[in-house]
């Protein structure tokens, strides 16, 4: 593959070029030599090693280099998204129960993923209390405060400054097009809906724009190239943003739709007749029945949707009917960040689970249980003892350093320092409250042998053998030094469960039993 030397050097992953904690670059592009060249390069073991003309050395994973050929996408454009019509949800809307959303990271990831993929998701059973919509928004990001406040009440108001606060029908539209940047997410939480009428509707604006592009490409070009004045004013506010109805990125992909007939100001200059022809065609597409997804929000329903993609609407309702929604704005970047972290945590736990299911099925250093069976028993014993989450995790993961064949090295009489190896490997995801007891659990065995004369007799034959390989009982000085360590008590607790967790007949939960606990701990560490 042909790679630019400057691109390659700019993406050097070494710690001289990037901060190992943040990944941020430690140099400016102008710091690189004017005539930068590759002096030598070689591929081996999935890595490209490069020697540079200025003496710097870089190592790049080949799978990272392969990604360079793919066009970038931040998840905000039409790329990779299904552009839907109403019939695509004949089997049901993307939805979840509020309690499951709070309790299960996988459910939360599915809901947020639906917002990214389809542009919306619905939460059921959200408590029907005032301002609860803010709590929903804060599960994935931050509330965007506007001139309407941190939240707004969607109900009939006597002195409404927006048609949304009346009982009239509202055609498909996006909110706040007069604001730049526009709020990219909107939430609507139903507290009451006993009125006749007042049903909700959604239209995929990306689908409507894609249809315009396919059916009338000249009109699509007009709407992507004409800045439209969007205006809002009341007694205390004056807002204006000039943006196209359809915005595309540098590669021509649909990225944003702003569509609100109530807020379009007076367009002046340019070919106004051509614009209005295109505008009317696009508006007509958004009103096609097959594109309009209609449903009714009931008390406890909270709709989360992408305000740069979806147009939302409602039917008229009785002016005196009891209909009360509360809404707020938030932003897609926070939702995307939360989803990415949830996915990263799930991937981390899947990596650990793969070790339990793979190498974990093998022999555990001459004991009667498998390696995975031993570790699962240890975690279960900690849990049964009422240990806090971090200790249960430490007990579950304490022997992770044996994976990779190093356990055989220990049984051959060479200390594999698996406690340290395991702690260092786990540190990429877990905090010191988990990795500390893992790092010290071998030292805790040596400590207990030194301070409790009867302890040695409790050890299995294999554990007695590994004790000698690992240094034998501590000296009085070493024991005193160990006891003074901040995590010594936790390490001793893990050690005692470790010694008990070798019963081949014990009923032991599977790895999935511990997933929620591990996810909670990853949430604190990542």
Overview of this structure, please?
This protein is an alpha+beta fold and 526 residues long. The protein folds into three domains: 5-67, NE0471 N-terminal domain-like (2-Layer Sandwich); 86-338, Clavaminate synthase-like (Double-stranded beta-helix, 4-Layer Sandwich), CATH 3.60.130; 358-525, Hypothetical protein af1432 (Orthogonal Bundle). Helix content is 38%, strand content 17%. The strands form five sheets. Strands 4-5-15-8-17-6 form a six-stranded mixed sheet. Helix 7 (217-225) crosses helix 8, helix 9 crosses helix 18 (515-525) and helix 10 (371-384) crosses helix 17. The longest helix is centred in the middle third of the chain and has 26 residues, at 332-357. The two termini are 35 Å apart. 36% of the residues are buried. The mean pLDDT is 91.
Gist of the model:
This protein has helices at residues 5-10, 62-67, 98-103, 105-118, 132-137, 205-215, 217-225, 272-286, 332-357, 371-384, 389-397, 406-411, 418-426, 432-451, 461-469, 476-483, 488-500, 515-525; strands spanning 38-44, 47-52, 57-61, 95-97, 120-124, 152-154, 170-173, 185-193, 200-204, 228-234, 237-243, 246-248, 254-257, 293-295, 302-306, 310-314, 323-330. The protein has 526 residues and is an alpha+beta fold.
């Amino acid at each position: 593959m042909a790679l630019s030397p400057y691109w390659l050097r700019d993406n050097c992953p070494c710690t001289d070029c990037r901060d190992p904690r943040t990944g941020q670059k430690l140099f400016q592009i102008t710091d690189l030599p004017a005539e930068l060249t590759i002096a030598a390069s070689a591929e081996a073991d999935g890595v490209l090693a490069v020697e540079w003309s200025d003496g710097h050395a870089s190592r790049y994973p080949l799978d990272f280099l392969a990604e360079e050929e793919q066009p970038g996408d931040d998840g905000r454009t039409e790329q990779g998204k299904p552009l839907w019509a109403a019939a695509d949800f004949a089997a049901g809307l993307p939805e979840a129960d509020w309690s499951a959303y709070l309790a299960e990271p996988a459910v939360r990831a599915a809901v947020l993923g639906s917002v990214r993929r389809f542009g919306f998701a619905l939460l059921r059973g959200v408590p029907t209390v005032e301002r609860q919509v803010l709590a929903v928004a804060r599960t994935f990001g931050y509330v965007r405060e506007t001139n309407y406040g941190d939240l707004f009440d969607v109900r009939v108001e006597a002195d409404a400054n927006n048609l949304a606060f009346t009982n009239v029908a509202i055609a498909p539209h996006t909110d706040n097009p007069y604001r730049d940047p526009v709020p990219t997410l909107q939430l609507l939480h139903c507290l009451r809906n006993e009125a006749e009428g007042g049903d909700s509707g959604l239209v995929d604006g990306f689908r409507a724009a894609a249809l315009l592009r396919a059916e009338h490409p000249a009109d699509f070009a007009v709407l992507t190239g004409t800045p439209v004045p969007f205006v809002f004013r009341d007694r205390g506010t004056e807002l204006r943003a000039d943006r196209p109805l359809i915005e595309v990125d540098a590669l021509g992909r649909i990225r944003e739709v702003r569509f609100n007939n109530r807020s379009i100001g007076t367009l002046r200059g340019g070919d106004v007749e051509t614009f209005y022809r295109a505008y009317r065609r696009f508006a007509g597409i958004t009103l096609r029945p097959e594109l309009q997804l209609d449903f009714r929000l009931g008390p406890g329903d909270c709709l989360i949707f992408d305000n740069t993609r979806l147009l939302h609407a409602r039917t008229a309702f009785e002016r005196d009917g009891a209909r009360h929604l509360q809404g707020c704005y938030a932003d897609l970047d926070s939702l995307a960040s939360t989803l990415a972290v949830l996915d990263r945590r799930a991937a981390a736990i899947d990596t650990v689970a793969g070790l339990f299911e793979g190498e974990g099925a093998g022999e555990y250093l001459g004991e009667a249980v498998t390696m995975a069976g031993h570790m699962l028993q240890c975690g279960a014993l900690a849990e049964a003892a009422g240990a806090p989450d971090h200790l249960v995790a430490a007990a579950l993961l304490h022997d992770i350093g044996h994976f990779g064949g190093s356990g055989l090295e220990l049984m051959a009489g060479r200390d594999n320092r698996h406690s340290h190896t395991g702690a260092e490997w786990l540190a990429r995801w877990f905090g010191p409250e988990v990795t500390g007891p893992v790092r010290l659990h071998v030292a805790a065995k040596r400590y207990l042998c030194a301070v409790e004369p009867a302890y040695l007799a409790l050890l299995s034959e294999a554990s007695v053998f590994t004790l000698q390989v690992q240094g034998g009982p501590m000296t009085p000085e070493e024991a005193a030094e160990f006891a003074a360590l901040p995590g010594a008590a936790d390490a001793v607790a893990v050690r005692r469960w470790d010694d008990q967790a070798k019963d081949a007949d014990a009923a032991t939960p599977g790895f999935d039993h511990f997933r929620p606990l591990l996810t909670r701990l990853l949430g604190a560490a990542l």
